[in-house]
Amino acid sequence: MANVVFDFQQAVFTIESMVAKIERQAQTIEKLLKENEQLRQENQQLKARIAELEVRTKKNSTNSHFPPSSDRFVEKSPSRQTSGKQPGIEERRSAKYRILTTESFTA
């Protein structure tokens, strides 16, 4: 068997360094636990805010006391369908192509 020499000074130094390392790790764990708790609280607040906003966006003039002008986030459909013609164009054309008679000059 080999002759094993145990150095107590080196062993004490190793134990002291391990104790210091454990203390640093304990401080780090405490710091991380506090940060984790803060993040959990912030997460709960944000979830509540999201729920509030979702409820608000679901409301419109038909299911709340708000006037129709306050309806947002909804694309409104036109109340009447357009014909595609320009307004008033028929009247202008009929006046342009009116047949002139002698009766139109007397009046």
Q: What does this protein look like?
A:
The mean pLDDT is about 75. The protein is mainly α. The chain has a domain at about 10-70. The protein is rod-shaped. The chain has helices at about 10-60, 90-95, 100-105.
Task: Tell me the overall shape.
Answer: rod-shaped
Structure classification: mainly alpha
Q: Radius of gyration in whole Å, from Cα?
A: 42 Å
Overall average pLDDT? 77
**Number of helices, where a helix is a run of at least 4 consecutive DSSP H or I residues:** 3
How much of the sequence lies in strands comes to under 5%
Helix percent reads 55-70%
User: Main sheet?
Assistant: none
Q: In angstroms, what separates the terminal alpha carbons?
A: 142 Å
Based on DSSP secondary structure assignment, what is the total number of beta strands?
0
SSE topology string:
HHH
Unreliable spans are none
